[in-house]
Design a protein that fits this description.
single chain, 1282 residues, alpha+beta, 4-stranded antiparallel β-sheet, 39 helices, 31 strands, 15% strand, disordered C terminus, WD40/YVTN_repeat-like_dom_sf
Amino acid sequence: MFSPGTKKSNFSSRKDRPLPKHSSPGNTSPATPLLENRKPATENYVPDRPSTGTPAPWAPRLSVRARIPTVKSDKVDDVDPTQPVYVEEVPQVVRDEQANLLQKRLSGDTSISGGMDKGTSLAWIICGSKLFVWSYLAPAASKKCIVLELPSSILEDGDISKNSGSTWLLCVLDWDHNALGTNKALQQRTSVGVLLCNKKTRALVYWPNIYFDSSDFITTLNKQQRISYNSLIASAIPDKKCFCIALACSSNGQLCKFICSPTGIECQETIAVSSQGSQLIGPRGYLRSMVWHAPYSSEKESKRRFLLLTDHEIQCFSVDLGSNFSLSKIWSHEIVGNDGDVGIQKGLAGQKKIWPLDMQVDNNRKVMTVLVATFCKDRATSSSYIEYSLLTMQYKSGIDVSSESSYLLHDKILEKRSPIEVIIPKARVEDEDFLFSMRLKVGGKPSGSSIVLSGDGTATVTHHWGNTSRLYKFDLPYDAGKVLDASVFPSDDGEDGAWVVLTEKAGVWAIPEKAVLLGGVEPPERSLSRKGSSKEESTNVSFAGNIAPRRASSEAWDSGDRHRAVFTGIAHRTAQDEESEALLSQFFHEFLQSGDVNGTLNKLQNSGAFERDGETNVFARVSKSIVDTLAKHWTTTRGAEILALSAVSTQLLDKQQKHKKFLQFLALSKCHEELSARQRKSLQIIMEHGEKLAAMIQLRELQNLIRQQTSTGVAFTNSNSLNDLSGSIWDLIQLVGDKARQNTVLLMDRDNAEVFYSKVSELEEVFHCLERKLSLIISEEMPFTFQLQRACELSSMCVTLLNTSINYKDENHMWYPSPEGLTPWYCQAVVRSGMWTLASFMLHLLTENEMGHLGISSKLEFHSQLEVLVKVLLEAYSGAVRAKVEREEEHGGLLEEYWHRRDTLLDSLYQQVKSFNQGSSEVVEEQNKEITEKLSYNLLAIAKRHEGYQTLWNLCFDHNDLELLRSLMHDSMGPKGGFSNFVFKQMYNNKQFSKLMRLGEEFPEELAIFLKDHPDLLWLHEVFLHQSSSASETLHALALSDVDSSISEVVDPTFLEAKTEPTLADRRRLLNLSKIAAVAGKSGHYETKLKRIEADLRILKLQQEILKLVPEDEETQELAQKLLPPADLIQLCLNYQNKQLSLYAFDVFAWTSLSFLRCNTSLLEECWKNAANQDDWEAINQTTVAKGLTDEETLEILKETALFQASRRCYGPEAETYEGGFEQVLPLRQESSDISMGGSSVEGILMQHRSFPDADKLMVTAIMLGSVAAEGMLEDGPSPME
């Protein structure tokens, strides 16, 4: 396919440089040998050898990995944003196997296959008889490569063409799908199955778990002559470990269903897919592609749907993942037919054949993208070509995707999401093997982009930009091998990630979003393959002057100089565009002559002048031609004296006048109204041409002013002969003009300044030059004062350009379209980056020692220039963020950059303001104070507009101006609570709690929001607001919190202190305060609150008593400082053989909730078993029998047992509980428990005791006696022994 245009490499500069005789092994390997150092082409001619790339693979050559740059440069100039990014190499075992295979097959293709699985982020390569599987996202230290031996029975590759793509189909089964967290891609997997299929022989091999036993595999052979599988999908079967269902479609229209298990592979069913109205005769090529309708999401998913692509339809099937694994067809939709509104219309003139090649579904399972190839014949030239396009379909409105019954109510299921996107209008004719080897991937960045993989090993990203398609080709040198597969980097936020490709010999590479946007071009007439096209050379000439299409191929491997693309793509001009532009120019010329515009709008509409938006719109192009008109001649053409000529100003004013006339023409012809409604971007570009013209005129005036000041000595003192020319702006003009002159052949004989003042529409290049070439304009070798002067000149230039543009927009705002979602030119990234580079340099000058030796006037001038530069830079960031928010685009990264640079700039300005507040005498100090107040006022305005809260705080805090602080808090209500929240946070971190609470009296709502994360102070504020019930809740939660939040996370390390957890006494005081607040509030349920607080006080008291009985050691000393949960407290009692502790466990249960009792019934049963173990029941039984004790004497002995006391505590008449009773959870007697329902009882628990067979009567008597005994014991009445 295609890749972007670029400047030629520095080949000419390297050509005359002698090559080193010896190369150190540690250095980066040299690039491809120069052309004159190679053998003549006639000595080793290779048919169809492309002119780009590298020598043939069998030629002596350094390895690809050796040529990958190993040292990364920190310089921004060394990074080309249009190039792919190297991610990692393949594992060492894979490289070793590739080397062994290459030695064995020196004369032929090594037939290496591979792929990537998006869901698991696993990559795989088949090399020889081995399958290698690894995670390309795992860190190098933990990277594990699984090596699987392929059985010899499936290695037969049959008659597969080398351009037919991979020989293998592979599916990854992720058994850990539901066990992993949200970030599944980065977590280590422990259970993954692999299903492998030989496309030609139809043989299958299944590894149930490659991480458990890689030698355990199942194979099956399913040979049928001349029929191959085209697509394979597999899904896990719920509730069956390592079981999966696999579906394979073949070229003869058969759909095969397999059940794979650890014991075997069963071909359960083979069905013939019916397709009415097929355009094909014979079995060749179809069925083509299958894809799951939605990702596997749940182990309980009983059915899954998949989509099947035929030669003219998309069919949807459902497979039952339950017992019978039946297949059922849900719907079908014709995409190639006579109705062009529902898909691709066939039978058009010149159209011979249509091949749907591959299909993918987006992450939201709503959009289906189909790659289509159409064989056409041009009647005029009798030449044949293939048109490649993308068809995007979506469900019609009103269809419930999740309901199968919803499809029965509609005749048509799908509709076009957008018009067919033609990605290559006229490509060379390829054979069917090559066409059927092409694969489609969707889901990567930029959003909406797709990547097409061809069988000969190339990958092309296609992105629809504006009204046209942009193509970016990832094309490696031949000795780097093929691109095996592509996938998408995972993203936690659910957004699309960058494209990532797996190569045969060069590892894994990523294609950044910026590379696609900056490096994409519209396609010329050229093939998708590496063979090139016979028309390619002539097509390249028609792009624009001498600009050649850029290739993201072997240039990405060279570590030499990198160059930024001047443009983001070159518009593909059609005959209709040319006619519309010519017609518009004619009408405008007639308007200038006569002022007549009758019939202009209708004629332009009929010519298609309003069909394109953006820079390709014909109105925008005519406007650009007006402002970029090159003067026929200049009075002088060389030297700085050109600036003094009136010709420059005259030409700019003439352009401005003509541009105003063009706007009048648009208004009178009502084209302005049409553009404002339909092509807002185009109209904005037209108006921005006016902005740039006005800015260029003001730049010209500024330049004259600076020259006058320099000649009269008004500028910085100590100017020397270095400034005899026209200063830094002149140098900048030379650099920008030279760059534009070299990029256009027609301008090569013009002066740099002439080109600069002519190319008005490319004013952004001024800022790009500032970003990249500032060191050439202001070098460190220059005198310090000279550096200051030149920096101030550049700052004044930037401010003039932006302020003039903003003023132009304000004065002509009625001409502009609605601004929602449109980014002004001065808010673009290149403009912001240029100004930030200059501002950073000026900040660096502030740190130099020479700054302290300057006079007050020089310091003030420098500060003033920096201040206004900061102001316009922050305005540019604000506009860029606002536009992204309005377009609902991701703007988190831009916002973080904006905040960081804002704080850096404002803090530096504030530090400089503070430096003025120093003087050697009272008079000087008074003068400096006035200066400081004025500068502080200006800084305050900037910080307030851009929410620079830290600077606002510093201004108020350092001047101890509480009134200003309150005023700013009233005015600023930004995100996250605004300035008020920031002030509260600063006071809290500085431990100024009294000031914080007093200030909160004036801002009660804001302080309440802030203190939600600080309950240690929140309750005080709630008391102040007379919210006693809320204060009670806060105190209650604070008393029971695990970690005391009163010691905040301090931002300033100087305030960092060791966190101390509150003691049990502190918690008791908090609970008492909560109790008081609840009584004061007297809400509707305050009695219930009081009861819960009292219960927590009891549990707290129990913990103190329990810890007194527990033996002291290091562990118990730590427990003494913590609040233990009830379950842990009960378990602590069970850990020690102590009668009192065993009874305390029941007390803890008594003051917990009924739900806690029900959830911890087993723990309660353990407490009863523990209580039974506290006494020797066999000894008690022997004593009563041996001594013949009376019932009264026996009862007295039983009163001392733990069972008696526990029964009295839980079931006695005076038993106290917080909620409910123990009988609701664990009845006392066996007969009161429903045994049939699995119920339990205290008596049933005692039956399991070892002493129960001998002392059963005594044990039951003890619990029964305790259940009726009061505190003083009953003296009368029947004895429980009876």
